[in-house]
Design brief:
Elements lengths: L5 E5 L3 H14 L9 E6 L1 H11 L5 E6 L15 H6 L2 E5 L2 E7 L4 E6 L2 E6 L5 E7 L2 E15 L7 H4 L11 E11 L6 E4 L4 E6 L6 E5 L2 E3 L2 E8 L5 E5 L5 H8 L4
Parallel strand pairs: 1-2, 2-3, 3-16
Antiparallel strand pairs: 4-16, 5-6, 5-15, 7-9, 7-13, 8-9, 8-12, 9-10, 10-11, 12-15, 13-14
Length: 255
């Protein structure tokens, strides 16, 4: 890439704040609006926040782990940072766009880099009808919830819900139930990235459901549509020895 103009952003964690001070002392401080590379210091949660702020902008994001898991982050190294950024591999991610209609008839929009999930709000299981590209594929799913995950998000909540790990560039998304009660043995489906998924909440007044796109939650929803947003993208930078495709491949063999 072109010579990086770097801005540093950090989570509220003390070690992330301290790292930002050290890096700015060495490489200078710049406003994110004047940078073509944002270096995010924190964990995966902070990285998701940063990616959302950079959606649709002509900027790349290079994360360095100053949090806990750090699956979307590079190792933290202070030395020779401009060279490592200039030689990094670029991974372009397209988010999912969610349109959720609540019980009052109001429509809400949000985007998700990881996943869109429907979750029950009370002690009772949710009842959800699932349609794909205008065809009802499941008349009634009784569950704690159900989610659609991107390849980048397939190792997050989707994996914890026993969904499949998806390679970057596979052009598919995961449709994964969360604690399915009926049909009990349904484990979900793999869908083309361009598919349009619709969730209709059944018996919504008695069994209320919330819809969550990454960190944006809409409560008491009755209808949720999800599709890939090909007009919106964000670029992640990974050091060549730690690229995202390799991490996801390794995750499939983790024991």
């Amino acid at each position: 890439m072109a010579k990086p103009r770097i801005a540093f952003v950090a989570s509220s964690a003390p070690k992330a704040r301290n790292a930002k001070k050290k890096l700015e002392a060495l490489y200078g401080a710049r406003e994110p609006s004047k940078a073509n590379v944002i270096v995010a210091l924190g964990g995966d949660g902070f990285m998701l926040e940063t990616l959302h702020q950079c959606l649709g902008r002509d900027v790349a994001v290079y994360g360095m782990n100053r949090g806990s898991v750090g699956f979307l982050m590079n190792d933290f190294e202070i030395e020779d940072l401009p060279r490592r950024i200039a030689t990094a591999q670029v991974t372009t991610l397209n988010p999912l766009r969610m349109t959720a209609t609540d019980q009052a008839g109001k429509a809400h929009e949000a985007v998700a880099i990881n996943e869109v999930s429907l979750l029950r709000q009370t002690r009772q299981t949710a009842k959800v009808r699932i349609s794909v590209d205008g065809v009802v594929r499941m008349k009634e799913l009784m569950c704690d919830g159900v989610l659609c995950a991107t390849a980048a998000g397939s190792t997050a909540y989707n994996l914890s819900a026993h969904g499949p790990i998806l390679p970057i560039g596979s052009n598919v998304m995961a449709l994964t139930p969360i604690s399915a009660f009926r049909p009990r043995r349904w484990r979900g489906a793999l869908l083309p990235e361009g598919a349009k998924v619709i969730f209709d909440v059944l018996d919504a007044a008695k069994r209320p459901v919330s819809a969550v796109a990454d960190s944006t939650e809409i409560r008491d929803v009755v209808h949720v549509s999800i599709c890939a947003d090909e007009c919106c993208a964000v670029n992640l930078l990974f050091a060549r020895e730690h690229d995202l495709e390799e991490r996801i491949l390794k995750e499939q063999f983790a024991t």
